[in-house]
């Protein structure tokens, strides 16, 4: 008997709750079908900017729209809000300023409020700061700190591709830029070749200036190097007329580093070491030999003799 009363009481409660939900739902739907005033803040979307122009700034990025719509349409808009597009190719212009004026009758919101009656836009005008979109080519300056493991080095050195880029932005800012830099790169104890890419940047942030491309590829070819040396005869140049010149010693050792692949190719005849008599100093009897020619695949060239003695005989 007690269980029957309990079941009856629970059934009555469920019926009551169902009726309550139905009544509440009907009440909400009735209210949503009524028109009422609304105010929404709408983000602005700027589009159709000419390629030869750049938008430096706008007086606002949002607009507050007031109007009337059904509660149902407004409810949907709150969940699926839309932006308001402004066609930058159709701006009005006066006294050097570009602007757009909202029109209560012609301008409409998108989405569920597309048929709403708009009563005001706040602000009613958006002002734009436009500049000429200017471009020029500038060189890339690499920033790197590379140290090699003993016996290793790079014949070609650090290489970038490309070595210059195009920048585009307001002419007033582009005219002040003469170069762009890579991000800083640091390697130590390098033994193997490296290839990757780096971001490009200005010393100071210039957000309105765009880089094309914004990254640059780099490569560092690393080889095993060894030291070599060859004996080379000294060549005398600019010897005064009617004078016989002699130097001591007549040959010097050229000491250099070369990668292992090219070591066997190095010959004495590949080098030209000269003594220039235009550098004669009457207070000294010595001259400094200079290396004028050398193979492209050798580096760190030095001579066994920093100076040589000379004698002029008439």
Automatic annotation (TrEMBL):
<dbReference type="InterPro" id="IPR012505">
    <property type="entry name" value="YbbR"/>
</dbReference>
<dbReference type="InterPro" id="IPR053154">
    <property type="entry name" value="c-di-AMP_regulator"/>
</dbReference>
<keyword id="KW-0472">Membrane</keyword>
<dbReference type="Pfam" id="PF07949">
    <property type="entry name" value="YbbR"/>
</dbReference>
<protein>
    <submittedName>
        <fullName>YbbR-like protein</fullName>
    </submittedName>
</protein>
<keyword id="KW-0812">Transmembrane</keyword>
<keyword id="KW-1133">Transmembrane helix</keyword>
<feature type="transmembrane region" description="Helical">
    <location>
        <begin position="12"/>
        <end position="30"/>
    </location>
</feature>
């Amino acid at each position: 008997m007690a269980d029957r009363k309990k079941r009856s009481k629970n059934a009555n409660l469920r019926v009551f709750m169902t009726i309550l939900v139905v009544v509440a739902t009907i009440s909400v739907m009735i209210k949503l079908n009524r028109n009422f005033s609304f105010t929404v803040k709408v983000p602005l979307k700027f589009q159709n900017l000419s390629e030869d122009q750049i938008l430096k700034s706008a007086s606002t990025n949002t607009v507050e729209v007031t109007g009337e719509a059904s509660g149902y349409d407004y409810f949907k808009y709150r969940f699926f809000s839309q932006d308001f597009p402004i066609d930058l190719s159709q701006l009005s212009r006066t006294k050097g300023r570009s602007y757009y004026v909202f029109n209560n009758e012609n301008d409409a919101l998108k989405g569920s409020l597309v048929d709403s009656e708009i009563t005001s836009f706040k602000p009613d005008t958006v002002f734009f700061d436009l500049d000429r979109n200017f471009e020029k080519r500038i060189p890339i300056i690499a920033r790197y700190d590379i140290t090699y493991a003993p016996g290793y080095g790079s014949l070609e050195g650090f290489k970038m591709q490309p070595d210059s880029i195009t920048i585009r932005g307001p002419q007033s800012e582009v005219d002040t830029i003469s170069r762009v830099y890579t991000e800083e790169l640091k390697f130590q104890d390098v033994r193997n070749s490296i290839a990757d890419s780096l971001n490009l940047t200005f010393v100071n942030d210039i957000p309105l200036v765009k880089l094309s491309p914004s990254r640059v590829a780099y490569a560092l070819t690393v080889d095993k190097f060894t030291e070599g040396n060859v004996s080379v005869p000294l060549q005398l140049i600019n010897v005064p007329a009617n004078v016989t010149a002699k130097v001591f010693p007549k040959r010097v050792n050229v000491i250099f580093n070369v990668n292992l692949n090219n070591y066997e190719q190095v010959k004495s005849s590949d080098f030209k070491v000269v003594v220039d008599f235009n550098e004669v100093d009457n207070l000294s009897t010595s001259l400094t030999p200079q290396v004028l020619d050398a193979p492209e695949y050798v580096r760190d060239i030095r001579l066994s003799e920093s100076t040589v003695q000379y004698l002029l005989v008439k």
